[in-house]
Fold these 2 entries.
Entry 1:
Amino acid sequence: MPVGKRDVHRYLIEMNEITKIATPDSPPQRLRKPDWIRVKAPMGAEFEKTRALMREHKLNTVCEEAACPNIGECWTKKHATVMILGDVCTRACAFCNVKTGMPMAVDALEPQHTADAAAKLGLEHIVVTSVDRDDLADGGASQFVKVIEALRRTTPKTTIEILTPDFRNKTEAAVEAIVAARPDVYNHNLETVPRLYPTIRPGARYYASLRLLEQVKRLDPSIFTKSGVMLGLSEQRLEVHQVMDDMRSAGVDFLTMGQYLQPTTKHVKVSEFVTPQAFDAYASVARAKGFLLVASSPLTRSSYHAGDDFAKMRQAREEKLARSGASNARP
Ligand code: SF4
């Protein structure tokens, strides 16, 4: 059959479409946020009280620095994630809104300020994270230890969750020191699939992060381990399943999955808004793979509902132990 002008025209349009997707010189336009991502503007008396307390104690929070979409909800409930070791990071990950540069000296009063703020807020559970401090000999591990110790002294009933960097080139010693201080939950995020590390998390190594999680579990199996990934960065479904398998091999108890949101136009673009249904489907797969707990939704973040999730995780472990005890007791 002879090829007509129309066929050629259609072919060119199709090729153009394909080229548009494949050529890095023509990146996709910024996608419009779907309705399920929209959140209320932060405001209200309780929100302001949380903010005032953070300022009073000179504390940074990842809620503000990372431009977290949940800040209105969390701060109204007095949930804030304290970011220690300053507000300047030594890395420049393509997804993160925290400032990059030469950080300031470590604040010796920060551990006690964190503990005092937790006591004033009456927190049952606190999440403490930090910027990357590749400039420090221990990567900042000793500051995490001091914060845990100050919290135990000042507000002993508060359960402690830490979300640490990878402590590049000093991981083993750093993790040993922190595990010895016995936080209740040790979180370290893998963030994305290994294929995207060179562009999304260029300063980090996927397998080094996995080994960190595995080391925590090996040193103290009673500490809950937690890790998370962002979706919408062009990862493929099977790659996400592989990350789940890798986490399970490292003994990770709790998986969080949330939608990546581009904080500014300088950051990497969102490649896709993953639907709430797809998040549910990922959660089902993750549960089948044996995680003790899975949180998966567009607005899920590492520390979102962390207190409630800690209680659920503890209960899930008790139920699991009871079941295995019961089955071991069988003749
Ligand atoms: S989800 Fe975490 S980082 Fe975001 S506002 Fe809540 S506590 Fe802060």
Entry 2:
Amino acid sequence: MTLGQNFLLLLGLLLSSQVLAWGEKGHRTVALIAYQQLNAQTQARVDALLAHKGFADIGDASVWPDKVREQKLPEYAHTGPWHYVNLPRGSNGFDMQRDCSRPCIVSALAQMLEQLSSHSPDAQAEALAFVVHLVGDLHQPLHVSFADDRGGNDRKVMFDEEPVSLHYYWDSLVLKSLPQSDLLAAQLLDALSTEQRQSWLSADVNQWLAESYAITASLYQTNPAVIDPVANQHYQQQAKQRIVQAGLRLASLLNKYLPE
Ligand SMILES: [Zn+2]
């Protein structure tokens, strides 16, 4: 293989890792929205923990839990099921005993919120990254989904004339035509009304999950084989709303749970 081929291969790998899992854009936007909504004291604590762990910013921390999973690091093998929860087909909603008897996103988030108070700065910094990430995942509809097609990973839809998995569409492709995360975060915050902020902040974790599940259930009800531009526009609106909801709610959790 020539140097040029090596370079192209490397470039290809870099580009494909950028579009991996919510994809980076989604997670980073959630994290940036949250960061801007933190009180000064919490923001300083977050900065200190990010620096401790060597994260460049909160966006970097937000994608770290997917990175350690993709790298299949043995010490994080147990965190695989933390990113989602599966419900039985046709179920009315989440049942902690039935759906989270083994670790799921709900128990993982509770555990990581508790770990924010750990005496070890390392454990605290990792808990911070997981909390930032998991609140994002919980708002991605297909992370509250069904086991039989692995949260839409095994379900193909046509988008932009390509067959893609429904899960991947919702993780990444739905946000593809939107600006980069810093600009997107600013736009979403700008468009936010006081009423939306109040009503979204009054919801608890169970409601966040129920909202995701409602979108998932409606996706499977309409069961689209092709996501045309009109459908894409509709899903993009939903995705933007999920991201800003996640960002606001994440800030409120961190303001509450991150000790001085
Ligand atoms: Zn994830």
